[in-house]
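Minutes, methods subgroup
Present: GH (chair), OT, SY

1. OT presented the first of two proteins processed in the latest run. Sequence and structure tokens recorded below as shown on screen.
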Amino acid sequence: MHGVIRALLLSATVLAAAPAPAQVADLVSNEVLRVCADPANSPLSNRDGSGFENRIAEHLGQVMGRPVEYTWFPMVTGFARNTLFAGKCDVVIGYAQGDELVLNTNHYYTSTHVLVVKADGPLAGVESLSDPALQGRRIGVVAGSPPATHIARNGLMGKARPYDLMVDRRVEDPAGDMLRDVEAGVTDAAVLWGPVGGPLVRAHPGLKAIPLLKEEGAPRLYYRITMGVRQGEDVWKRELNSLIRREQGALDTILREAGVPLVDNYGKGLKEGG
């Protein structure tokens, strides 16, 4: 998960308080698209450029006629303070909507958590964490993440296997560990943030990712993902909003090609068009 989330909970859980408002309008580069990113947060971002957020940044930079320049920092406590708020970069490509530390653009996609199971196993038809088929099963879940509440509510926590959220992905790989454990039979299923689990499952042909679209009660399992800029940078936000609106089709294509499950704005069904 590392990020809704981003690795998701990517916003409020990983960012430190912003500094006092400054002359932020002077900080945005007019010549380079300066992106704040985690160097080892595959499949979202990676120093080698392989993440789908890298592809989105490159596409936007090409449309804007600006080369992309990265400031790298692990998506842990202090990420925003050492990148965006320090004026070293101007945008976080993926940021959960609603966090007040940054100024959010309009959202450019909505996704949800997924249940990862063996494609030919007895849980392949499960669509909800309330399914009786999950009773007595060992389910991997990121500790403290929204699905953990649903797992507890459905009486599944007794055999649940927790995995860490707050890690430096350069040295730890909880999402990869979760998938390998399902493959090896250490667990029967795993719940991951869709933009992480969906793309990663493609490297594990024996597994499938099922979008969790039928969960009831709080907390919600879907999130709208925006781009994050510094508070007060309304002109820059509007520029990005206009770009998102014009390039929405291209952004959808990048996300779908990566394996990100795209859902409607209310997390009730898959987004039309793919």
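2. SY then presented the second protein from the same run.
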Amino acid sequence: MDFLFNTNAQFFIAAYLVGGIPFGLLLAKKFAGVDVKASGSGSIGATNVLRVVKERDPSLAKKLGAATLALDAIKGVLVLLVAYFAGVSEATLWGIAVLSVIGHCFSPYLGFEGGKGVATGMGVMMFMLPYETIIALIVWALGAKFIRISSLSSLTALTALIVASFIIHPEMAHAPVLIIGFILFYKHIPNIIRLLKGEEKRVV
């Protein structure tokens, strides 16, 4: 158990546990009285919170969706900030980033189920690769405006981020970026199948 006294291990555990907090589920239950895991797509993310709560209260849905998006993004950054000021290595920071996303997507509080990881991934990437993330956010915003399919916009933005990371930082080890990308694509497999069938719903 000596590894628990290792600073890096402590940050890794914290990243996973904090990343796993299902803010969307908690907010929707507390303020709208609905279980997002049992409605809509079953995801705990902002898009499903917006979709499910909107059926009851459109105004509240926007607030809870925005709050879920913000909190899911911030929770990954929070541990990164503490670790950064504690003086850990860049490799450790990347480990924290990856584990934050894993925590959200495979939450220990939800039987290792979770959300799609987009907001949490966006948060940690904004900390680690700000320029690439800004490019991805622009791509996402354009997709959200013109395509209006949340999953497609997110996956297109993720692809743009990965490509941009190879162009802007060709010297860095891209394994953590690719791992996070793989996790997000894996969690979107049902969406990808629906996209191929033309069945994915638009955000209205």
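Chair's summary of item 2: The chain has a mean pLDDT of 91.
Next meeting: continue with the remaining queue.
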